[in-house]
Amino acid sequence: MAQVNKEGIYHIQDWIDTHQEYNPRVFDLWANGIASEVNRCANLDDDLQRNGEFIYEVGLRDAQGHVMTIALEKQHFEMEV
Questions:
Q1: pLDDT tens, 55-77?
Q2: Which of 45, 62, 54, 67 is closest to 12 using CA atoms?
Q3: How far is Cα 22 from Cα 40, in angstroms, rounded to an integer?
Q4: What is the mean pLDDT of residues 36-65?
Q5: Between helices 6-19 and 31-39, what is the axis angle to 10°?
Q6: Is the separation of the CB atoms in 47 and 54 below 8 Å?
Q7: Which of 38, 43, 52, 76 could tie 72 with a disulfide, CB 3.0–4.6 Å?
Q8: Model confidence at 80, in pLDDT bands (50, 70, 90)?
Q9: 3-class SS at 32?
């Protein structure tokens, strides 16, 4: 079972910091909260194994109407047995 590691939390926070200009509500996101949601995703392990990454939909849209996502790669996770 995969769990977001410290590097992953920093990656999420960096995403939050760099995407606030696309939707002001990004400011309200919390990196640890997103990491907790990612850890509970049913398809997390499958996506990491098949694609080498996990794409998390933030639940917001940018000014053009595109769904905002955060891409987390294998190095952003600790793999538990």
A1: 999 999 999 999 999 999 999 99
A2: 54
A3: 26
A4: 96
A5: 120
A6: yes
A7: 76
A8: confident
A9: helix
